[in-house]
Design goal:
Order of helices and strands: HHHHHHHHHHHH
Number of strands: 0
Distance between the termini: 46 Å
Radius of gyration: 19 Å
Helix content: over 70%
Amino acid sequence: MKSYLRLMRIRHWVKNVLVFVPLLFSGLLFDFQKSFRTFFGGVSFCFISSAVYILNDIKDFEKDRVHPRKCNRPIASGEISKRKAIILTLFCIAAAIIFQIFSGNIQAGIYLLLYFILNVFYSFGLKDRPMIDIIILVSGFLIRILYGADMADISISAWLYLTVISGSFYMGLGKRRNEYETTEYEKSRHVLQYYNYKFLDKNMYMCLGLANAFYSLWAMDSGNRYILWTVPVVLLISMKYSLVVEGDSDGDPVEVILHDKLILFLVCTYAVFILFALYYK
């Protein structure tokens, strides 16, 4: 069972917290109807993202076998056969559809379909196209935000939208930069031959600066003086995250966040601050 859960990459479900961000920042977290729909939407996105991860592992299992870390993945290591992985993929897709129907907002399922199609194209060729590979990685974060807003039937602040875009580019470029340093791209990630360290490094930190600026502008524009208190915390999270990826990390956002206790503490501190700022009356 543990092998199947690893294949579904349950840890990476943490990315789907973004589905709840529009609801949280709208101040309507305790609206039962909106929270109910968003919860089922979040579960649905978890299953569709797992389907994407499994398909990618099926496609890349030969390359993963020669990767120093990915060789331990269930398919690459031989723990789970490709046939069983395909069955699990179909199960995840079916579960995503069922939960989307239960949510009562079937129309928002177009974002699930878009996410799935983009990532299928990514797995079957676009991951080897420079810049397009990063754009698709970034689109995954943006689609989660747009999907969450549609599920809760609320609009997204332009500053928040720009913050997510810039932050996503920062993490995507950072992941590629660290892979460039540590990976034999001829064997495991062909697209890295089109990049160079200076390009990835300079642009990732440009995007980080923009993300912090956009978030600060959102905080100022919110009209809520308490939200300004969160800006220093966001800056600290950014600096600590950057310190980690400058080490021996491969730059994977989930691995960076979940394996650093200080980052987890700062994220929890931010959550407390933002909840207080938005919901304390």
